[in-house]
């Protein structure tokens, strides 16, 4: 099969993912450059290279990936590479020498430049790059920044990642590992010392902290002592189950008061898809009041004149409104994770109550905006055991008949399984019912 044709954007876009690597040649046009080829890989990637023989040896120089590198750019790079080779300069040798002195800081600069191209192409979000910059600056740069990658082997990589895990926990370990692997991949470094290191299984460390009914009462009492804007913000965190960053930056243009829903745009959502959140009655009361009190053309639901972003910001650390609310009731305890309450625990609390009260995993997954129901299932499926058990008990009793258990006996058993506050409520109801019957008699 002749793999030579005139390289154009449309022609290269039409190349389908091959079953094995296929090389195409740029020919047939006055603009074509002899030696310019495109390798179509089984992964779906399309890589421009320049190839020619020098002193009997076949040299192949990588130029870039299509479509990030355009046909015009690839041709210009191919001409430049041809000139270098004619002058005795081997770009591959230069790259090897550069890699030998390349530092982690250099690698991160390449990562940022590559990521910015992805942002322009709308493949990635600017907020993701911002998070990577913060992660690198706070947890990687001090120890790795000036180190040369050529001297950094797999054993050093394992030791470094163990240190991250010990000092900062599994979450920072996993995020750091993802960033470091991506830095090497985006720079096309052949040897990646982090390649064989696996992420820590988060399920082994997953938080299950939620607020009990009693704790909710304490929490609401403490919350009532805050300014109205903070009360409203925290209530919406609990009532909608959405992530902190989304609630803090909630815009009025996202709220459909008539249809009682909040549409979170794809640009803010982790799944990169727009997410529609149904608003319960209590949430609507808050939003309606805030809408009536909002200034003309006010952009944010929770505005802040002191914040450079225009809305209230993350206040979960010391001195913030979240710290005040939780500290009053003994739930601000960073050194005691079983006792400590985080903002994200409100999201888990709502989901937990929804599942345990009989709500489906599917509905809970949709509410939380999880991209895959298996994520929700891994975290919350075990919480529905009680409702499944109750249904199973009824089924077994029905199958086996009343000979094993009288109806009154089952009622007593059900009452015995109720929490204390539910028993007291039932007792009051029965007393009122009995008094009502007595009165009518």
Automatic annotation (TrEMBL):
One of its GO terms (biological process) is DNA integration. Gene3D superfamilies: 1.10.150.130, Integrase, DNA-binding domain, Intergrase catalytic core. Residues 206-393 form the Tyr recombinase domain. This is Tyrosine-type recombinase/integrase. It comes from the Bacteria. One of its GO terms (molecular function) is DNA binding. It holds the Pfam family Arm-DNA-bind_3. Keywords: DNA integration, DNA recombination, DNA-binding. Belongs to the 'phage' integrase family. InterPro entries: DNA_brk_join_enz (IPR011010), Integrase-like_cat_sf (IPR013762), Integrase_catalytic (IPR002104), Integrase_DNA-bd_sf (IPR038488), Integrase_DNA_bind_dom (IPR025166), Integrase_recombinase_N (IPR010998), Phage_Integrase (IPR050808).
């Amino acid at each position: 099969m002749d793999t030579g044709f005139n390289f154009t954007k449309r022609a290269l876009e039409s190349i389908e993912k091959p079953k094995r690597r296929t090389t195409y040649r740029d020919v047939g046009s006055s603009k074509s450059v002899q030696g310019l080829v495109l390798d179509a890989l089984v992964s779906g990637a399309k890589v421009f290279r320049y190839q020619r023989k020098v002193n009997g040896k076949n040299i192949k120089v990588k130029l870039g990936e299509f479509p990030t590198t355009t046909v015009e750019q690839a041709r210009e790079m191919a001409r430049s590479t041809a000139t270098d080779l004619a002058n005795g300069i081997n770009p591959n040798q230069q790259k090897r020498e550069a890699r030998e002195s390349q530092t982690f800081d250099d690698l991160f600069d390449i990562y940022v430049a590559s990521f910015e191209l992805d942002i322009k192409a709308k493949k990635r979000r600017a907020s993701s790059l911002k998070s990577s910059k913060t992660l690198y600056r706070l947890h990687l740069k001090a120890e790795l920044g000036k180190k040369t990658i050529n001297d950094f082997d797999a054993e050093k990589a394992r030791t470094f990642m163990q240190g991250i895990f010990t000092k900062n926990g599994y979450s920072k370990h996993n995020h750091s590992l993802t960033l470091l692997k991506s830095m090497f991949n985006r720079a096309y470094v052949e040897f990646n010392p982090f390649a064989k290191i696996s992420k820590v299984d988060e399920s082994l460390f997953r938080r299950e902290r939620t607020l009990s009914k009693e704790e909710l009462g304490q929490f609401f009492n403490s919350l009532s002592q805050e300014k109205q804007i903070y009360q409203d913000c925290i209530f919406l965190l609990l009532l909608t189950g959405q992530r902190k960053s989304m609630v803090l930056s909630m815009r009025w243009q996202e709220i459909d008061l008539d249809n009682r829903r909040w549409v979170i745009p794809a640009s803010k959502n982790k799944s990169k898809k727009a997410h529609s959140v149904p608003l319960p009655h209590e949430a609507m009361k808050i939003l309606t009041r805030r809408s009536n009190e909002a200034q003309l053309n006010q952009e944010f639901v929770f505005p802040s004149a002191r914040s450079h972003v225009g809305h209230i910001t993350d206040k979960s650390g010391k001195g913030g409104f979240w710290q005040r609310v939780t500290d009053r009731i003994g739930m601000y305890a960073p050194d005691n994770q079983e006792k400590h309450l985080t903002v994200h625990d409100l999201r888990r609390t709502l989901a937990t109550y929804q599942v345990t009260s009989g709500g489906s995993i599917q509905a809970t997954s949709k509410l939380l905006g999880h991209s895959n129901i298996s994520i929700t299932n891994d975290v919350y499926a075990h919480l529905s055991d009680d409702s499944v058990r109750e249904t199973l008990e009824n089924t077994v009793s029905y199958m086996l008949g009343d000979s094993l258990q009288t109806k009154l006996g089952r009622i007593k058993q059900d009452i015995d399984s109720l929490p204390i506050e539910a028993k007291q409520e039932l007792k009051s109801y029965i007393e009122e019912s009995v008094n009502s019957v007595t009165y009518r008699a």
